[in-house]
């Protein structure tokens, strides 16, 4: 027996057996601890709610238009706390309305499902079912109108024609909705007494015949409107008047060199503008003996504050009168002089005749007076003889 205990191989075998027993015990303890830890982790479950989750709509969007979906849904999830926390943080899943193409046009009630959630989680979508309407899609282009109240403009000012950066927009919606579109417009707002240009970026309003807004997609959804605001002006023609001392042997013709500037824009109050039909400009031809072009500065008439243009180029065309015209003018002058002389002579003759007519009665009167005196003397003489 002692030989066996003293045998080196016996000692080695016993040591190996103890080593195997020790390894087996330690490994078993580690596995038991790890299993307990895993069981504890899996057994710790929790529930949470993820809000405002968008819906993925699976449909041919080139041909169909769907209405009835809520913008977002909420999702209740439950499961291991670590997975719940990770899912809520990352939101690495989708809520899907699948295979809508197979439903076709009409009204349908469908179920919303989650895709991409961990299989260890339970979930509930709220709302779980939705009623939707599938219709044929229609895209149409409309012109945008501008609505503006002119009474907001200050007196003596006026609003010009509005301009927008997009004159037309594209509306997308169901065929039935697009067919109801009556008006596409933007409404320009402001306070009373506007005197400056208006520039506003405004949303586009789409409405039906009753003025009710329609649910459509707009591209673009807003436009920038510009409205010029200027003082009230009036366009009147320019009238050229010849002034000054003209040469008797010359004739003058006045004209505006730039024919596009034959009118002038006048700014004034309403009363003056209403009475203004033309804009007179006096052109002095004194000492002008040949054709010339002058730059004339337009004067401001009474009550006029601004004119445009402020200057014009006037051409004074000078031509010599021919001999026939001169003779005719001379004849006319002589005729006028002769007529004047004849009139004067006739007047003098009439005056002489009148004076002679007046002198004859005076002579007759003197003769009668002398005869009366002679008769009186004869009578007195006869009376004395009788006595």
List the helices and strands and how they pair.
Elements: H1 2-6, H2 8-43, E1 45-57, E2 64-67, E3 72-80, H3 81-90, E4 94-97, E5 106-111, E6 113-115, E7 122-126, E8 129-143, E9 145-147, E10 157-159, E11 163-164, E12 168-174, H4 175-178, E13 183-187, E14 198-203, E15 205-207, E16 217-219, E17 222-227, E18 229-231, E19 233-243, E20 250-256, E21 263-268, H5 270-275, E22 279-284, E23 292-297, E24 304-308, E25 311-320, H6 323-386
Please tell me about this protein's structure.
With 387 residues, this protein is α+β, with helices and mostly antiparallel strands. Helices cover 32% and strands 39% of the residues. It contains 6 helices and 25 strands. It is elongated. The protein has a 5-stranded mixed sheet with strand order 6-4-1-3-7. The model is unreliable at 33-42 and 336-387 (pLDDT under 50).
């Amino acid at each position: 027996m002692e030989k066996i205990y003293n045998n080196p191989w016996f000692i080695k075998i016993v040591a190996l057996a103890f080593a195997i027993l020790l390894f087996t015990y330690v490994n078993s303890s580690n596995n038991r601890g790890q299993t307990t830890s895993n069981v504890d982790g899996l057994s710790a479950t929790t529930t949470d709610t993820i809000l405002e989750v968008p819906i993925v709509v699976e449909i041919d969007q080139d041909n169909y238009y769907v209405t009835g979906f809520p913008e977002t849904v909420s999702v209740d999830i439950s499961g291991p706390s670590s997975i719940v926390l990770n899912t809520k943080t990352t939101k690495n899943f989708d809520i899907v309305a699948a295979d809508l193409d197979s439903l076709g046009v009409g009204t349908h009630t469908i179920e919303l499902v989650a895709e991409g959630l961990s299989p260890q989680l339970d979930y509930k979508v709220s709302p779980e079912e939705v009623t939707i309407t599938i219709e044929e899609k229609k895209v149409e282009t409309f012109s945008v109108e501008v609505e503006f109240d002119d009474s907001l403009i200050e007196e003596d000012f006026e609003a010009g024609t509005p301009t927008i950066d997009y004159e037309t927009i594209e509306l997308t919606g169901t065929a039935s909705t697009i067919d109801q579109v009556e008006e596409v417009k933007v409404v320009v707002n402001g306070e009373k007494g506007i005197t400056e240009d208006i520039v506003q970026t405004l949303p586009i309003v789409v409405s039906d015949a009753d003025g009710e807004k329609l649910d459509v997609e707009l591209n673009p959804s807003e436009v920038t409107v510009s409205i010029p605001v200027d003082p009230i002006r009036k366009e009147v023609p320019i009238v050229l008047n010849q002034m000054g001392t003209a040469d008797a042997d010359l004739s003058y013709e006045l004209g505006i060199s730039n024919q596009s500037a034959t009118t002038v824009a006048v700014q004034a109050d309403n009363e003056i503008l209403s009475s203004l039909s033309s804009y007179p400009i006096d052109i002095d031809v004194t000492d002008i003996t040949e054709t010339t072009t002058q730059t004339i500065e337009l004067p401001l008439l009474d009550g006029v504050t601004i004119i445009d243009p402020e200057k014009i180029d006037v051409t004074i065309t000078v031509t010599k009168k021919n001999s026939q015209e001169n003779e005719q003018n001379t004849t006319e002058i002589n005729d006028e002089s002769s007529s004047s002389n004849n009139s004067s002579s006739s007047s003098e003759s009439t005056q002489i005749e009148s004076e002679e007519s007046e002198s004859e009665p005076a002579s007759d009167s003197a003769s009668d007076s002398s005869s009366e005196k002679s008769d009186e003397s004869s009578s007195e003489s006869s009376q004395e003889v009788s006595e």
